[in-house]
Amino acid sequence: MGKFWLKFLKSTAVIFLIIIFGVNYSIQKKKSIEKFKKQADENFFTMDNNISSVNKLLNILETSGDTYYKKNTRVGNNNFRFKYIPEDDLYISTDESERVVVGVDKISSRWSVKKELDMSEVLASSYDNVIGVMPDIAYIYYVSNSGFINLFPKVSDDKYSSLKNIYKLNFVKKELFSKEKSGENESFWSGIYKDPLGEDLLISRGAPIYEGSTLKGLITLGLKSDFFVKKIDSDLILEFFIVDEDGNALSTENLQNKKVSKFYDSLPQKIYDKRYKLPDMKPCDIEKIGKYYIYYEQCNSSPWRIYYVTDSMKLHSEMLKSNLVFLSLWFMSLVFLYGALKRKAVVEDSQQTIEKLQVMLRKSDKEIEKDFLTGSYNRKGFTKIANLELERMKRYDIDACVMMMDIDFFKKFNDTYGHACGDFVLRSFVRVVTKNVRLSDIIGRWGGEEFLVLLPETDYKGALLAAEKVRKMVEREVFYYHKQSLNITVTIGVSTLNVRKPLEKAVAEADAAMYRGKEDGRNRVVGFQDIMTKDVKWKK
């Protein structure tokens, strides 16, 4: 009788195992696709945030050049000496420094050119610090309309002959020679191109420098392809494509071949055959084409389209891993029924491992300078980049303002719809704020639902207008969470910041003004100077 029940137990266990395996396989397939989307989102947000940091660094250099001309700075004591290199037909600066100034023709001795050389040296004084912050920058160079280049870092002598090729780059010709001289500084992204001084593929971020309405030259950051590739870190992403405005693609295969190719020409054949589906995709869409899954994102800080690709094999491997875990647990249950009592120890050991990983993740999260949830700076990162901006303010004796923003009745979103909805509200709020402030403005999550914005070169009245614009746009936007429409309002406090007032005091004043707005009914902008004036009148 005992043998019968043992066989019955084995047969029942096998049948039940097959049923559970099929159900679990279906569930894990859906989870694997969601995991692929999550990994793509994480990589995308990391890359987009790093692109935003490049924009900030370029803006600092661009502003330094504009400030130099606006202040009508006199020519300094930079006495450049050049030697002519006949075999390269170039004029090279002879001073010993980490940068090199190159003239494609003999450099004019006119006062305006000397002044521009001086200005390029002002920019060059920051090059080392910029690459220190962003080591993925291959080159920083100022390309002049007067026929010279200020390049950092200095290249070896055998590459001097290639320096003229910088003027032949399509984006340089377009921005420097074909651009209408409107006097408006419009920063730009280049397409994907081959390094004229090497073999790698580069993408450049640049901006024109004007003296009045006269275009003087371009300040350009050349980004290494590693800047994009090393951000793609995933066990499910098979391939990715960064597509520029001209339809050229940066992918793993292109980087290995060191060759620029069109996006469609880089696709696997089965995707290429149905490429007509790709233009109809919207951000965060996932499309299945044959055995491939394609996830699409659009950069907020650049004109690029990003496509992440995986295939059924990788998803099946992920599902098999999950089912193997399930099978292992089921097998351990059978072993338990036969007398093995080690299952509890295995579970406890697994729990300890999970707890250690959670501790490591929390420690890692504290060390980063970006708020992963919203993509804005966290308090540490905001303070760091704000201090860089304050140093520039001290150098040029300019003022700024800060805005303290708090989402009204934020707790009701968590209480009514759950914490996932609260996270959605925070991300959506930062997206709206980012669209309605300047590129030079710095956004940071100060804590909970409170956010800070630093407004460089902005007076008190201008800051109040900027804050009111943000308040109106947040109030006007309708957000949809799981088909549920949500309306958000924000209360904003404004305070001034200058070289005589530390950042901590300006933040405290903006915070006090924001709380006065909360007391007065929320969904409003309150300036600290205004409440101080009202309080003084009341006391009198």
Automatic annotation (TrEMBL):
<feature type="domain" description="GGDEF">
    <location>
        <begin position="398"/>
        <end position="530"/>
    </location>
</feature>
<keyword id="KW-0812">Transmembrane</keyword>
<feature type="transmembrane region" description="Helical">
    <location>
        <begin position="323"/>
        <end position="341"/>
    </location>
</feature>
<dbReference type="Pfam" id="PF00990">
    <property type="entry name" value="GGDEF"/>
</dbReference>
<keyword id="KW-1133">Transmembrane helix</keyword>
<protein>
    <submittedName>
        <fullName>Diguanylate cyclase</fullName>
    </submittedName>
</protein>
<dbReference type="InterPro" id="IPR000160">
    <property type="entry name" value="GGDEF_dom"/>
</dbReference>
<keyword id="KW-0472">Membrane</keyword>
<dbReference type="InterPro" id="IPR043128">
    <property type="entry name" value="Rev_trsase/Diguanyl_cyclase"/>
</dbReference>
<dbReference type="GO" id="GO:0052621">
    <property type="term" value="F:diguanylate cyclase activity"/>
</dbReference>
<dbReference type="InterPro" id="IPR029787">
    <property type="entry name" value="Nucleotide_cyclase"/>
</dbReference>
<dbReference type="InterPro" id="IPR050469">
    <property type="entry name" value="Diguanylate_Cyclase"/>
</dbReference>
<keyword id="KW-0614">Plasmid</keyword>
<feature type="transmembrane region" description="Helical">
    <location>
        <begin position="6"/>
        <end position="27"/>
    </location>
</feature>
